[in-house]
Write a structure and sequence with these properties.
By secondary structure, the protein is of the alpha/beta class. The protein folds into two domains: about 5-170 and about 215-240, Rossmann fold, CATH 3.40.50; about 170-210 and about 245-285 and about 300-315, UDP-galactose 4-epimerase, domain 1 (Alpha-Beta Complex). Helix content is about 45%, strand content about 15%. The protein contains twelve helices and 14 strands. The protein has helices spanning about 10-25, 40-45, 55-65, 80-85, 85-110, 140-160, 185-195, 215-225, 250-255, 270-280, 285-290, 300-315; strands spanning about 5, 30-35, 50, 70-75, 110-115, 115, 165, 165-170, 170-175, 200, 210-215, 240, 245, 265. The strands form four sheets. Strands 3-2-1-4-5-7 form a six-stranded parallel beta sheet, sandwiched between helices. A three-stranded parallel beta sheet has the order 6-8-12. Strands 9-11-13 form a three-stranded mixed beta sheet. α1 packs across α8, α3 runs parallel beside α5 (about 85-110) and α5 (about 85-110) packs parallel to α6 (about 140-160). The protein is globular. About 50% of the residues are buried. The mean pLDDT is about 95.
Length: about 325
């Protein structure tokens, strides 16, 4: 990567990835973009920024030409819970935007990174240590768009030789940016509430395992994959990546080691609970480890220490 365009740069991943890539490649070589220009945003104010609606292919193409972009990291997307509230919009944003990015990439010879998700699997997938290649019959529109996106990226690589790459992210946990409507959001909210109120009511019930990852590892995975030797990539798109698998009570137990008075309760959201139960408990990420050296740094204990420390620094 030399000149990078990030779509959806104001979101949970994009805002942190922008800062991460600016440190690695230089501020003038990273072009974050979004559909609005919020005041006070570090993404907007600390470097380049462009207004780009990914449903408008011309805006993508104009930005690629303007900055001589060689890599597009396509993050603009509607997530699982918000996608269920408006499935038609989720299809248009997730699939229309991806198609436009791939077409612009094909025209200008850009490498493309597109994240898939654990949501690409469904209730008929293997529940524990879900393999790289398994049955994919998701029950959400978000999951449907992720499976279709994986196939579309594979098609563009095989049909046009476009350098497409991607990972299947689990739930992502961050101290920088609040999540935006996903099923795994409880694993972020719980830390904020632990510090603010010493209690939290989880919308996911006890015993519900889901794969998770701390944001620093997620950012590293994007860079590592995009910098990997393409001759070693057998799968290229939709690599399973994971770092830890846990249920809400496990996060609570780790938090109590640092905040003994913390208490967890449950106020289950049936929609998000049903989504969570349709996903695997854990993923097998051996393909990513073997093909490009994936190796996460954080587990639940070390992430909890860092999350609480960073949130205290922010004085939430």
């Amino acid at each position: 990567m030399k000149k990078v365009l990030i779509t959806g740069a104001l979101g949970q991943i994009g805002s942190e990835l922008t800062a991460h890539l600016r440190k690695i490649y230089g501020t003038d070589n990273v072009v974050p973009s979004g559909r609005r220009t919020p005041q006070g945003s570090k993404v907007v104010e600390e470097g380049l920024y462009e207004l780009v609606d990914t449903e408008n292919a011309q805006q993508i193409a104009d930005t690629v030409k303007k900055y001589n972009i060689d890599t597009i990291i396509h993050l603009a997307s509607m997530l699982s819970a918000t996608g269920e509230a408006n499935p038609a919009k989720a299809w248009n944003v997730n699939m229309g935007g991806l198609y436009n990015v791939l077409e612009v990439g094909r025209e200008f010879g850009c490498a493309i990174f597109t994240p898939s998700s654990i949501a690409a699997f469904g209730p008929t997938s293997q529940k524990v240590k879900t393999p790289q290649e398994d049955i994919q019959r998701p029950t959400t529109m978000y999951g449907v768009t992720k499976v279709a996106g994986e196939l579309l990226c594979d098609y563009y690589y095989k049909r046009f030789g476009l350098d497409t790459r991607g990972v299947r992210f689990p739930g992502l946990i961050s101290y920088e940016t609040l999540p935006g409507g996903g099923t795994t959001d409880y694993a972020v909210h719980i830390y904020y509430e632990a510090l603010k109120h010493k209690k939290y009511a989880s919308f996911i019930k006890a015993g519900t395992y889901m794969d998770m990852m701390y944001m620093p590892d997620a950012l590293d995975s994007i860079v590592q994959l995009m910098e990997a030797d393409p001759s070693k990539l057998i799968h290229r798109n939709a690599f399973n990546v994971t770092a830890m698998s846990f249920a809400p009570e496990h996060v609570a137990a780790e938090i109590k080691k640092h905040i003994p008075e913390f208490e967890i309760d449950y106020d289950v959201d049936p929609i998000r609970q049903a989504i969570a139960e349709s996903w695997p408990d854990s993923l097998d990420d051996n393909a990513a480890r073997l093909e490009w050296g994936w190796n996460p740094k954080y587990d639940l204990a070390s992430m909890t220490v860092d999350m609480l420390a960073k949130l205290k620094e922010k004085q939430i």
